[in-house]
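User:
Can I borrow your eye for a moment on a structure tokenisation matter? Would you put together a sequence-and-structure record for a protein of your own picking? Please set it down just below, with no commentary around it:
AI:
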Amino acid sequence: VIKNIQWTAGNNFTVERGRQQIEEFISTWEVHESWLHWTEFLQEEELKYSKRYRYRVCWSVPTRRKPIPRATASVYFIIEISKIKPATLPVEVFFTLESSRLIHRAEQCQFREKWLKDIIENKIILMERL
């Protein structure tokens, strides 16, 4: 079962509301409690037929021995508001993982904790090789 939330309508959208809804959406993901994250707004993009709002959610697993993690994993969100469709329709939400080109639709994709682990493991392997 793919979990989703009720996304706000385009006419009710604000940058802060977008950040809050991303947090709400992330809370539906099944990730271990040891994962911590923070969310930041990156930029607004004006397109011909829509407006896009970009956010980054940075994930890590700090521990007592290593409170500053060796690597982090980022998930990038795009909230898109159509200029053509009625403003009362919900915003469209997409996300991509750092180092991946695949674009996931929020309502059509089940997030996997393994994706975050893979990003961090690959970064650590790369750092050790350098």
Notes: The longest helix spans residues 113-129. The mean pLDDT is 95. Residues 70 and 127 are 9 Å apart (CA to CA).
